[in-house]
Amino acid sequence: xxxxxxxxxxxxxxxxxxxxxxxxxxxxxxxxxxxxxxxxxxxxxxxxxxxxxxxxxxxxxxxxxxxxxxxxxxxxxxxxxxxxxxxxxxxxxxxxxxxxxxxxxxxxxxxxxxxxxxxxxxxxxxxxxxxxxxxxxxxxxxxxxxxxxxxxxxxxxxxxxxxxxxxxxxxxxxxxxxxxxxxxxxxxxxxxxxxxxxxxxxxxxxxxxxxxxxxxxxxxxxxxxxxxx
Length: 229
Hints:
Blueprint: E1 4-5, H1 14-17, H2 21-30, E2 32-36, E3 41-43, E4 51-57, E5 60-65, E6 71-77, E7 82-83, H3 85-88, E8 97-100, E9 104-110, H4 111-120, H5 122-148, H6 151-163, E10 167-169, E11 172-174, H7 181-188, H8 192-204, E12 208-211, E13 214-217, H9 220-227
Parallel strand pairs: 1-6
Antiparallel strand pairs: 2-9, 3-8, 4-7, 4-9, 5-6, 5-8, 10-11, 11-13, 12-13
Helix pairs in contact: 4-5, 6-7, 6-9, 7-8
């Protein structure tokens, strides 16, 4: 799917500031910590829904498998973001895989306790709607991209999206995360071979370069041209 990362127009750490002191104590008392080693599967499609997860440190990959068994990456969730919200608000079973792509530390709050917060605090309920609404918009953009854009355009869009929250350095911007060509391909509905060919072209033309395994954007205008097609 063509988006890849949770890049919403507000900060998910806003959640904590919305709680009253009593509600903060409630969360502290009811939540528990979980630690996942890199490559651990946190939940799979069909698993029962018990809790919502808030990432303290690390990174989680949200994905699924196509009918042919090909991995489709919906997004990566990083520090200070939630995952598992959609099911907590209505479904009894998970519909996706959640995998720790690096050692990850989370806080977990049981479903009923989280729903108590939503009922008691309209600000928190609105916050959850904003998170889910942002992710729904991402899904719509991904579907539109797959329908009307070629692979070059989808990859350019993804790189520009990833760089929104990246580290600005002299001469360009460095995407914070190390991503394999297969991961990039799985985020835009393409093959690894095609993505590798485009990446190599971008490098040769000096649109991007790699620094310690991370992509640095050198020519924003050219990528914007591709993304607009």
